[in-house]
Amino acid sequence: QRLVVLLGLFMLAGLPAIAQGDERGRFAPDGEIRAAFDEVVEDARASVVQVVVDGEERVLGTIIDEDGYVLSKHSELQGEKVRVVLSTGRGVDAAIVGVDRKNDLAMLKIEARGLKAARLSFDKPGLGRWVACIGMHRSAEAVGVISAKPREIKPSQLVLGVILRAHPDGLWIEAVSEGFGADKAGIKAGDVLTHVGSKKVIAVDQVVGQLQSLAEGDEVQVRLLRDGASKRVMVGLSEYGPDPRSRAERMNRMGSSLSERRRGFEQVLQHDAVLRPEHCGGPLVNLQGEVV
Predict the structure, then answer these.
(1) Tens of pLDDT along 9-23?
(2) CA distance 207 to 267
(3) pLDDT less than 50: residues of the chain
(4) What is the pLDDT of residues 119-172, one digit of tens each?
(5) Cα 55 from chain centroid?
(6) HSE (CB half, 13 Å, CA atoms) of 81?
(7) How far is 42 from 283, CA to CA, in rounded Å?
(8) What's the pTM value of the predicted model, to 2 decimals?
């Protein structure tokens, strides 16, 4: 249950920024509304940390256990050294001790005393209920209302980066897409794909099925025939995303960059608060100051 607590917040990296906002992306006329939530967010602010990767502020995190466990957004933590800055301003080293790649979550562990864990609520907030996104400042970073029922966002299709055709020995590789995993692994047009993992494949649907239990960035071993000789290689998987030239994608990108990870979540809470990408990872709280 703890691992899904922040999913409603993690999907907001793709929301457009408000052009009229100040340098922190806040919409000026909503200042009074955010101030009205100061008492609501005051208790939870002590549970918010700034996560710093290789000296760069990347994302927020939420303390969910007083023993030093912090939940954050995994895709933003790529780097050599991870540290967190507590609400007191103190910085401490952090180690990634667990990852839920399917939901883009990482559990960090820090060694510090006097930590305050966020209060959690496992009741699903109804439509129209107020929520506040908390960061490192006294006021909420953004406020809004729950605007849709909790739902799944399905992942994009994972691909090797090849075009396949039927072949007596498996699947003939007609072409290799530049920059995808197969290309990087040295697979060539004219190779014959015989196995994905430990499974023999004779149809494209079998390849698709083998890949969908994995995640983007995972590697899968494939077996090939090249000039009659068997060859095994490891291939990194990529998402086959929507056409960036499509109308939907152009609208999504208006006024803002999009999170690299914005699909494939088991459950999300959708709200209409405008939040900057670097403010993901902090708690989303109800009017009782509980993390939903």
Answers:
(1) 333 333 333 333 444
(2) 26
(3) 1-29
(4) 998 888 889 899 988 888 888 888 889 988 888 887 777 889 999 999 999 999
(5) 21
(6) 7
(7) 12
(8) 0.65
Instruction: Record the tokens describing residue 33, joined without a space.
Output: 């509304």
Residue 274, CA distances (Å) to 16, 73, 277, 282 in order: 7, 18, 10, 14
Helix (H), strand (E), coil (C) string for the chain = CHHHCCHHHHHHHHCCCCCCCCCCCCCHHHHHHHHCCHHHHHHHHCCEEEEEECCEEEEEEEEEECCCEEEEEHHHCCCCCEEEECCCCCEEEEEEEEEEHHHCEEEEEECCCCCCCCCECCCCCCCCCEEEECCCCCCCCEEEEECCCCEEECCCEEECCEEEEEECCEEEEEEECCCCHHHHCCCCCCCEEEEECCEECCCHHHHHHHHCCCCCCCEEEEEEEECCEEEEEEEECEEECCCCCCHHHHHHCCCCCCCCCCCCEEEECCECCCCCHHHCCCCEECCCCCEC
